[in-house]
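tokens incoming
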């Protein structure tokens, strides 16, 4: 068959081109399925409130009041994300950015973008730069999380090279899923071999079965990971246009706005307060019949938007289903600017809402996270076994070529 040699060639070079990146993504994915738990274990000072160790811990302050106190303590910073309520015994995690420095006209270089605040005393227990290239205890989990989808490649000319690279790897991976499935069944009369593992024979035979049969058994899950990785990294340039050819999509609140430069964003103060936006969202939620409270507020200075999430304290990650609901408001006058409500909208909207929950496994709660952690390890194993198969065949071809050349020289002599 003429097609099979071409597909073998494509599978080989697709696999080799993506192997290192998929190994890293798989290995890190297996770990970051538990990023919050591991982060809290490694860095208790960022998650455990010191006030909880007192005989009388005291009353928890509302999250918005905590944010105001933090900004009053350090006028250089602006809180860009805060949860409205804290869990007893836990710190309140906030994201921050620098305000404009009057002396330079540029945002302050704070050296950190995340704070851990005691919800009783408003004491700042810890600071870190989330996503920094560092293997310290405080930065390890954020480092692995960002490595997973950007390889920590820099932004050049406004283009996020790492995000694009891993998105392209996802496209290649998606195509290779179908090529690999075709190649796994060369003869339909012996299809059982493509599901078997020669455990007792070991060696290269077992390595081959781990790669081929392992890929066949996990094919559906691998395809889901491949497709959702494209969605995660190339959401606007690739996935949305593709989905829009099949289904209407609700406009994203950020799509109609052009981000402003960091210096201008730092100078611009919102026209409405966090408290006012939280109240607007609370009233909107009541009109929609929601019983879940306002759980968090973020402010995007670059886009001039507020986002308000609805969740109980401790469920800010949206640990089951399609995640939490969000309402968006214009930061200038507080008018409604859009919404993301899981399970609502067109078929295309629901498909897009499912991308992160599927990729992270959170759509199935704890069971899904365990499954995705195991799948991350499987992706790393498939990458390694594929390279071993290629290296072995390459050595065999080189040996055969040397033997042929030696035989030719002998005949000539």
């Amino acid at each position: 068959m003429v097609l099979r040699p071409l597909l073998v060639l494509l599978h080989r070079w697709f696999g080799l081109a993506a192997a290192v990146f998929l190994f890293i993504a798989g290995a890190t994915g297996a770990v970051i399925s538990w990023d919050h738990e591991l982060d809290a274990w490694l860095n208790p000072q960022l998650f455990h409130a010191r006030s909880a160790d007192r005989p009388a811990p005291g009353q928890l302050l509302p999250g918005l009041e905590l944010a105001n106190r933090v900004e009053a303590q350090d006028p250089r910073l602006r809180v860009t994300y805060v949860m409205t309520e804290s869990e007893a015994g836990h710190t309140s995690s906030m994201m921050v950015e620098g305000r404009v420095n009057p002396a330079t006209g540029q945002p302050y270089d704070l050296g950190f973008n995340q704070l851990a605040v005691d919800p009783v005393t408003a004491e700042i227990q810890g600071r870190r730069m989330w996503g920094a290239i560092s293997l310290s205890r405080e930065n390890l989990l954020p480092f692995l999380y960002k490595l997973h989808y950007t390889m920590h490649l820099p932004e050049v000319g406004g283009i996020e090279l790492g995000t694009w690279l891993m998105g392209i790897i996802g496209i290649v991976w998606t195509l290779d899923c179908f090529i690999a499935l075709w190649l796994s069944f060369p003869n339909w009369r012996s299809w059982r071999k493509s599901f078997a593992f020669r455990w007792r024979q070991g060696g290269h035979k077992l390595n081959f079965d781990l790669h081929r049969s392992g890929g066949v058994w996990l094919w559906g899950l691998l395809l889901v990971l491949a497709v959702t990785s494209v969605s995660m990294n190339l959401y606007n340039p690739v996935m949305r246009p593709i989905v829009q050819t099949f289904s209407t999509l609700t406009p994203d609140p950020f799509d109609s706005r052009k981000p402003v430069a960091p210096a201008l964003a730092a100078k611009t103060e919102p026209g409405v307060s966090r408290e006012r936006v939280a109240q607007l969202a609370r009233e909107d939620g009541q009109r929609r019949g929601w019983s879940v409270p306002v759980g968090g507020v973020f402010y995007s200075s670059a886009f001039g938007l507020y986002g308000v999430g609805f969740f109980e304290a401790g469920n800010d990650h949206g640990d089951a289903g399609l995640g939490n609901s969000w309402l968006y408001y214009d930061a200038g006058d507080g008018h409604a600017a859009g919404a993301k409500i899981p399970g609502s909208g067109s078929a295309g909207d629901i498909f897009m809402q499912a991308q992160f929950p599927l990729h992270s496994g959170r759509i199935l709660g704890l069971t899904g996270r365990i499954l995705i952690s195991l799948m991350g390890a499987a992706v790393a194993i498939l990458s390694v076994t594929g390279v071993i198969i290629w290296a072995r065949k390459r050595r065999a071809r080189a040996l055969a070529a040397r033997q042929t050349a030696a035989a030719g020289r002998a005949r000539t002599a």
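note: The chain has 14 helices and ten strands.
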